[in-house]
Amino acid sequence: MSTNSTSAQEMLAAAVAARSVEDPEIVSIKRLLKLLDKTAKSNRTYGSANPVAQKFSQQFFEELSTHLTTYERLSVFVQRTALLYKESVVYQEEQGGGGESMAFKLYADGIRELSLHQGLTQEDLRFFLDSLWGGLDPTKDDDDIVTRIWGKNLSTISIVTAEEVASASVGHEQFVRLDSSPSFSDSTLRELIDREKTRSKQTPESESNSGSGKTSSPQDHRLQSGHLGYEVTEKELATLAKEIEAESHRNSQAYILDALTAILASEQSPTLLTKLFGLWGAVVDSLLREGKWTVLEKVLSLLHEADAVRPDLSEDHKQQLASVMNGLGRTERIKAIESYLNRSPDASVEELSTILLRMKPEAVPALCTLLANLTSPGHQAIVVEALTLLAKDKPDPVVRGLMDRRPVYVRNLLSILLKWNTPKFVESIEKLTRYPDAQVRREVVRAIGQLRPNGSGIKLVPLTSDPDESVRFAALKLLISGQYTVPFTQWSPLVVEDGFMDRPISERRAVFQAMRMSCRDEAVPYWQELMTAWSWTNRRKKEELAVLAAETLGKLATPVAIAALERGSKKGNAAVRQACSVALMQTVKHQRQQPSATQATDGEPS
């Protein structure tokens, strides 16, 4: 690669890098205009005396002062939907902003350039904000921005209007096009207009027209229209049509809420505020009935922050406000939620969880009723989540609900208790071991294993005879873990009944293993009798039990178990004697391995 080629690439890279770094003045202006937008909107919504509005105003004034100290002025060219500086967009109207846009407000009042100059005081800024959003004397009709700024005649705020631009453009068609970005970068629109006025004064009115010997006549001026107009393109007309269409279809509910919000922020009459807070209760009822969860959450957030927006509220009004918030969990309102959800199973539930969590613990009984009556599992899950948090300190309605005959409701309540993971609830749960629904009984076994992971296993033994196989094996799995104790007297009714021998061999083996782990030597006499007893009936099934008994005693491997195996190896039938011999060999092998295992865990010899 040649040196010239390398140099060209380096220059190109440097040019690209230079273009990618945005002018710091433009960055500062963008930030200031974004903050100005917030400041203007907060002043318009809450009033200039509100602490929130004052905070934004102070921040904007401080940052604007810093900018003006550095750059002397802040000038922007105004278009319908944007503000420009040096051909760069420094403020853009938000999608669907409409009348909320600062650019549109300035443009609609005829301003085509706005300049703020060094030396701007807080009083000047306050006047500008009031002018921008109509916060001055409401009795005056001349409330457009241009009239107010011209009337004040401040040296720190200057504007250029569309009329001035049009006047300066007469006879100079290409002076400034209002429908496009201006092509100047170092001069402001005001400077260009002043320069054009000076040039026009220096040109004699009687000067001959270019290329002819004629002078301008009064008739020439009479032919010029005195009306000022703006060119509107087809694209702009289409945009305006869409905006009008969108405005005409705007939800009337949103209009009402906006009006109520504005009243809350600005109304000073105590009587009207009392009526307003009375209306908010009706608004909450209406939104609940219609399932407008997202809108309702915005309303509740507004009411929750009302103290910050209106720190001047009286105690009576604060009590009214608290009544609206605290009454969210009233029985009739939760009944309205139930009616809507069951009527609209596929409706959106966004923000419903947030609304339920805003309720007080006193709403727990009504929420339990809601959970019991809902038909959609998705809706039930939302209520379960809310109850898990709200009912933790008031669990009685949840515990009482365990006796309900609706299995889905009971399973949901069990899931709440399991999330709390509090052992004191295990006694209430154990009462469900004979609940009609098998899925509930399986959940009961799981709950016992979680809330009572060791100790007495007496309540689990009846579940080993459950009609449902999955329930039986779930209970046996816990008992085989070795964490529970059960006296043999609790096992005896199960293993001596005739139906026990009809169970699958895998299940009988699991029962014997559960007995081995829960009552150990206490069950040895029973197993020894199985190996040595002689019977004329059910010989084959009893022989299977005897072989299982020998297998179990071999795993028990205690002295009492070994003695029983030795007796069975002498007095049992051939199959039993063989099973006892195999079990005895396993116990001997186990005893030989035990000392080496003990030695391995005792550490190094001294």
What's the arrangement of secondary structure elements?
Elements: H1 3-20, H2 24-46, H3 51-71, E1 73-78, E2 82-85, E3 88-92, H4 102-108, E4 111-117, H5 122-133, H6 145-152, E5 157-161, H7 162-169, H8 189-202, H9 218-222, H10 234-248, H11 252-266, H12 270-290, H13 293-304, H14 306-309, H15 315-326, H16 331-343, H17 352-357, H18 364-373, H19 377-390, H20 396-400, H21 407-420, H22 426-430, H23 438-451, E6 455-456, H24 469-480, E7 484-485, H25 488-496, H26 505-519, H27 524-532, H28 539-556, H29 559-571, H30 574-602
Parallel strand pairs: 6-7
Antiparallel strand pairs: 1-2, 1-4, 2-3, 4-5
Helix pairs in contact: 2-3, 2-5, 12-13, 12-15, 12-16, 16-18, 18-19, 19-21, 21-23, 23-24, 24-26, 26-28, 27-28, 27-29, 28-29, 28-30, 29-30
Structure write-up:
The protein has about 600 residues and is mainly α. The chain folds into four domains: about 10-200, no CATH class; about 255-360; about 420-485, no CATH class; about 485-595. Helices cover about 65% and strands about 5% of the residues. The chain is built from 30 helices and seven strands. It has helices spanning about 5-20, 25-45, 50-70, 100-110, 120-135, 145-150, 160-170, 190-200, 220, 235-250, 250-265, 270-290, 295-305, 305-310, 315-325, 330-345, 350-355, 365-375, 375-390, 395-400, 405-420, 425-430, 440-450, 470-480, 490-495, 505-520, 525-530, 540-555, 560-570, 575-600; strands at about 75-80, 80-85, 90, 110-115, 155-160, 455, 485. It has a five-stranded antiparallel beta sheet with strand order 3-2-1-4-5. It has a two-stranded parallel ribbon with strand order 6-7. Helix 2 (about 25-45) packs across helix 5 and helix 27 crosses helix 28. The longest helix has 29 residues, at about 575-600. Residues about 1-10, about 10-20, about 205-230 and about 595-605 have low confidence and may be disordered.
